[in-house]
Amino acid sequence: FPATLTVQAESEEATRGYCILRLTGVILLMLIPHILCLALLRVGMVFAYLVGFFVVLFTGSWPAGIFNFIVGVHRWQYRILEYWFGFTDTYPPFKLA
Question: Which residues of 8-39 are buried (b: 16+ CB within 10 A; e: fewer)?
């Protein structure tokens, strides 16, 4: 199950509004709902890893549903980090895909 990462090039200059948000620290406040959702999803991901471990142990293959859930959580996390660190001006959506 290879995971791929696709990054689209943004404009060369960040928007003024985003720069003001970064300087005042409002970006972190805007990401609190994402951080709370991800905290719950990461707890679920621990259980998914445990179940996946035993499924792989007995069947020899990783279940697609558990794999998609874990990859989705990681993608969501990296979209949040992109926004927080200023790699993109687009607010991250609330979805795993």
Answer: eeeeeeeeeebeebeeeeebeeebeebeeebe
73-88 per-position pLDDT tens digit? 999 999 999 888 887 8
**Contact call for residues 71 and 95 (beta carbons, < 8 A):** no
Q: Is residue 15 within 8 Å of 79, Cβ to Cβ?
A: no
Q: How far is CA 31 from CA 7, 36, 58, 92, in A?
A: 21, 9, 40, 9
- For 23-63, the pLDDT digits (tens) are 788 888 889 999 999 999 999 999 999 999 999 999 999 99
